[in-house]
Amino acid sequence: MKIDTLFIDADIPINDEVQYIISKLGIPPIQVKESQFVYAHINDAHDPILKAKKTLYITTNRGAIIKECPGTSEYTCCDYTILHTGTFCTMDCSYCILQAYFHPPVLQYFAGLDLLGSSLKKRFEQDKIFRIGTGEYTDSLIWEKISLMPKFLVETFAEQNNCVLELKTKTTNIDSLLPLEHNGKTILSWSVNTPKVINSEEKGTASLTARLEAAKKSQESGYKLAFHFDPLVIYPGCEQEYENIIEQIFNHVSPDNIVWISIGSFRFMPDLKPIIQSRFKESTLCYGEFICGLDNKMRYFKLLRIALYKKIISCIKEHAPQVLVYFCMEDEQVWENCMGFFPKKEGELGRLLDKSAAIHCNLNKSLL
Amino acid sequence: MPNNLFRDNILNIDIKDINLADERYKVSLSKTDITTLANSINHTGLLYPSILRPADNNTYIIVSGFNRVSALIKNDIPNTLAITLSPNTSELDCYKKAIAAYASKHALTHAELIVCLKHLKSFCDEQTISDMSLAIFNTQLNIRFIKDLLCIADMPEPALDLIHNANMSIKSAKRITGFSIQASAMFLNVFSKIKASSSKQLEIITYVFEISARDGIKPETVLNDQNIQSILSNTDTPAGVKANEIRTFLYEKRFPSLFSTRQKVKEQIKALKLGNTIKLTPPENFEGPNYTLSFTAKNHKEFQSNIQKLNSISQNDRLKQIFTP
Question: Which ipTM did the prediction report?
Answer without folding.
Answer: 0.90
